[in-house]
């Protein structure tokens, strides 16, 4: 095995790994866009169904148990 052929294999492997990394990053960007679209869709549905007209705001009362059950 000569030094040149070993370096050539490493360079080829490195190029292949860089290409795979580029592809994975592109897929991540596509997935992030899809997730943003899903979040937007769920927000619209929740608003349309009256489930989430406003963001959750903690009530300002003296009783702690009047907030959410199980959260103390």
Overview of the molecule:
The chain is mostly helical and 72 residues long. 65% of the residues lie in helices and 0% in strands. It has one helix spanning 3-49. The longest helix is centred in the middle third of the chain and has 47 residues, at 3-49. It is rod-shaped. 0% of the residues are buried.
The portion of residues assigned to helices is: 55-70%
Tell me the β content: under 5%
Shape: rod-shaped
Q: Structural class of the helices, strands and pairings? A: mainly alpha
Number of helices: 1
Which consecutive residue ranges, at least 5 long each, have pLDDT under 50?
none
Which sheet architecture does the biggest sheet show?
Answer: none
Fold topology:
Blueprint: H1 3-49
Features:
72 residues; mainly alpha; rod-shaped
Summarize the structure.
The chain is an all-alpha fold.
């Amino acid at each position: 095995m000569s030094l040149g052929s070993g370096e050539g294999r490493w360079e080829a492997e490195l190029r292949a790994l860089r290409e795979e990394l580029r592809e994975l990053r592109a897929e991540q960007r596509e997935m992030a866009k899809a997730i943003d679209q899903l979040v937007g869709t769920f927000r619209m549905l929740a608003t349309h169904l009256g489930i989430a007209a406003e963001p959750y705001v903690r009530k300002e009362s003296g009783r702690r148990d009047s907030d959410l059950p199980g959260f103390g």
